[in-house]
Amino acid sequence: xxxxxxxxxxxxQVTLPSLTDVGESEALALxxxxxxxxxxxxxxxxxxxxGRVPGTIxxxxxxxxxxVGTSAALEPEDRITLTHRGHGQALAKGVAPGxxxxxxxxxxxxxxxxxxxxLHVGDWSVGALPAIAIVGASSPIATGLAFAAKRQGTGRVxxxxxxxxxxxxxxxxxxxxxxxxxxxxxxxxxxxxxxxxTTHISEYLPNDTIAERATAYRMPGxxxxxxxxxxxxxxxxxxxxxxxxxxxxTLVECLTYRRGxxxxxxxxxxxxxxxxxxxxxxxxxxAFRARLxxxxxxxxxxxxxxxxxxxxxxxxxxxxxxxxxHPPLEQxxxxxxx
Length: 338
Description:
The protein has ten helices and eight strands. By secondary structure, it is of the alpha/beta class. A six-stranded parallel sheet has the order 2-1-3-4-8-7, with helices on both faces.
């Protein structure tokens, strides 16, 4: 049984899938993706502190396993909708680090030509719809994309990322109702990081889990440990298979924890030290690294080589973003329809 919301002051006790059933190259690829997201977010944070990032940023540090496990269960042609905490979601789906970092810095060579910034990243060429920063607003769009996929017979699945703070938004529930009624190929994927901005989930959710809300729409709902990519991949793969064969939507809740506050100017002081320490001890990136060394034939040198390659890729991404100019003034009038 998944823990109730009141229990989430501590991470849940779980049994993880064994890495012995996963090929070493596949396991290493999962770690590479998680490490890339971790270092990308740390790089973005450093640039923000240096004043190179306009506005603010919402980092997904600590939530890497959710998006990596999700994308590992999808096909390249599948679609995702992103949240305001979307850098990792974009990277896991295949958005290139250089143009993504350039977008966060407001540069013309960014994925949205510097017009979206951190809150609106995405690249439709890899199936990542540019993010909508309004909480819950992407759910009806995801349902619309799933309707198009079903009508056109493409076999595509759509993943709608949202956070626990969006779990009570009307747009989400309208979207789930319609998706269930029309049996649409959409997965409602909740990154439950336990806090809606600064409010603990036990203070605003009367349910034991978010997943149980799926019963109102007669769709499957499952709550899983979100700090392990294999656990997430299994849940999403089951939901995706059901969607592709015409079975309709699924609600997947992934229990995770962000390493910092809601955004850059939030110190997270509303969280007590014991809670933070307990969750940090289950940080998904070092935890999966340790499992690679303990449960496979991979050596420290193998893992370090992958980490070095990621660092080199991010060095190239930074050069690309720094060298990209800011958008010209005349670009401000593009896409203005009145």
